[in-house]
Amino acid sequence: MAETEFHAVAQGLVTVRAGIRRAAEDFGRDPASIHLVAVSKTVAAEGILPALEAGQRVFGENYVQESKAKWPGLRERFPDVELHLVGPLQSNKAREAVELFDVIHGLDRPSLAAALAKEIGRVGRAPKLLVQVNTGDEPQKAGVSPADIDAFLETCRDGHGLTISGLMCIPPAEDPPSAHFGLLASIAERHGLPTLSMGMSADYEAAIQMGATHVRVGTAIFGSRSRQT
Ligand SMILES: *Cc1c(COP(=O)(O)O)cnc(C)c1O
To answer: pTM here?
Structure first.
């Protein structure tokens, strides 16, 4: 990888970390309470290295197969990496996801809750689980409708014995995001859920204002993705 690209990633990371700190201070929050998940989907292992060498340890990926190809090798060199699956998960990949990831952000249906519960029992490893909420009730988007969230959380807990750590959302592209972040925060508060995964490159400051504990930032660190995702 060219030295300029290497520097661009390190610089992107510096800029995003500064942006997180500034937003935290502007909105009266402790910067240490906000975790940066560097979303490295479609970025090759060598493109992730500059972020690792700059000290970043929390990464997000969208695809199980891609992650299996990239991360075992990187983890040998950086064993303290924390890996988050931020994209949708098919039930038939639940076992691989449980083996590979530390946090799974896209739990959004009873069949996936059942598959994860089974594999957590079988594999003997329990990633933290976040329930994705479709705050805009968009038909094409993954996530539980806000109207169904109370019942779904109960199904996860009482039906499958799962511990849910928090919630995640991706607001509709055409809406101002803050109302969606506020809705997610209020649902989490109602259920006493500590983790709020919300905010991406374009809107992480607004998410921090509304209480995000995890922001998922890709483009602002690694540059625009060549592949459409
Ligand atoms: C790709 C992706 C991100 C990162 O988006 P950017 O706009 O590149 O920061 C965050 N969350 C999810 C679920 C994603 O799929």
So the answer is: 0.96
